[in-house]
């Protein structure tokens, strides 16, 4: 380790207790002091216990069966979307907490590991942000979540093969049909030769109607992708 690395390590060791002193850890949702954090980082035990799994049957009915046409082959999500999940996602996206995205992704991986099939040649694609929005946030939250989900397969994450070339409105307040139209033709494959015959895993924070993921999948399949899996932290029990 060179002298600068030693200095960096020393400063970090000093900052950690100072950070706890001046910025005590609190639950991101209820703001209670975290005397003993829950298994999921940044949540107290009560808020953590409010998180509920979502069944594959609900995902099939609320998302895949309502996409017409549907280009997604498999879909996996850890939790039902609720106000606690909303607080987590908001912190990851808008409060400069990329590390929290990785930690949440790592925890979600423990819940979904037995369900997700990842082959060595598969590519993992975080849903891309438009360059303007990325400059605003300084990072892509879906990439941070992907890094946590697949921390042992970081070399399979590809952030260049699919880009968002058209700026789109936030999907939050749009209807199902408005969401579909909003993301139509927003994405482009940059290296078609590396898509044909390949399998892809798309990662996003929340899957609501599935419009964004489905448009990504459509573009990839138009260039010969054979199988698309959609993965997120949460999805609403009712998608509208």
Could you characterize what this model shows?
Helix content is 40%, strand content 14%. With 240 residues, it is an alpha/beta fold. It has a single domain (52-235), classed as Rossmann fold, CATH 3.40.50. The strands form two sheets. Strands 1-6-5-2 form a four-stranded parallel sheet. Helix 4 crosses helix 5 and helix 5 (98-112) crosses helix 7. The longest helix has 20 residues, at 3-22. It is globular and about 50 Å long.
Order of helices and strands: HHHEHHEHHEHEEHE
Give the termini distance in whole angstroms.
54 Å
Radius of gyration: 19 Å
Number of helices: 9
Number of strands: 6
Architecture, according to CATH? 3-Layer(aba) Sandwich
Briefly note the structural class of the backbone.
alpha/beta
User: What gross morphology would you assign?
Assistant: globular
Total domains: 1
CATH class: Alpha Beta
What is the arithmetic mean of pLDDT?
Answer: 87
Physical arrangement of strands within the biggest beta sheet: 1-6-5-2
Low-pLDDT residue intervals, each spanning 5 or more residues: 5-24
**What's the story with the biggest beta sheet?**
4 strands, parallel
Kindly estimate the percentage of residues that lie in beta strands according to DSSP.
5-15%
Residue share in helix: 25-40%
């Amino acid at each position: 380790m060179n002298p600068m690395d030693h200095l960096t390590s020393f400063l970090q060791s000093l900052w950690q207790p100072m950070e706890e002193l001046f910025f005590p850890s609190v639950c991101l949702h209820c703001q209670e002091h975290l005397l003993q954090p829950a298994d999921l980082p940044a949540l107290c035990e009560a808020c953590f216990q409010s998180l509920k799994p979502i069944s594959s049957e609900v995902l099939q009915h609320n998302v895949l069966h309502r996409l017409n046409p549907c280009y997604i082959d498999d879909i996996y999500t850890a939790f039902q979307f609720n106000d606690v999940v909303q607080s987590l996602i908001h912190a990851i996206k808008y409060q400069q907490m990329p590390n929290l995205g990785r930690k949440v992704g790592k925890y979600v991986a423990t819940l979904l590991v037995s369900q997700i099939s990842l082959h060595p040649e598969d590519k993992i694609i975080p849903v891309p942000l438009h360059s303007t929005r990325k400059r605003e946030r300084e990072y892509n939250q879906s990439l941070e979540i992907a890094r946590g989900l697949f921390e042992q397969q970081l070399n399979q994450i590809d952030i260049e093969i699919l880009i968002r070339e058209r700026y789109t409105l936030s999907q939050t307040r749009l209807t199902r049909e408005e969401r579909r139209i909003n993301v139509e033709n927003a994405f482009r494959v940059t290296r078609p030769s590396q898509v044909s015959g390949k399998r892809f895993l798309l990662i996003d924070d929340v899957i609501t109607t599935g419009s964004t993921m489905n448009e990504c999948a459509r573009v990839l399949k138009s260039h010969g992708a054979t199988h698309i899996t959609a993965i997120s932290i949460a999805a609403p029990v009712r998608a509208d």
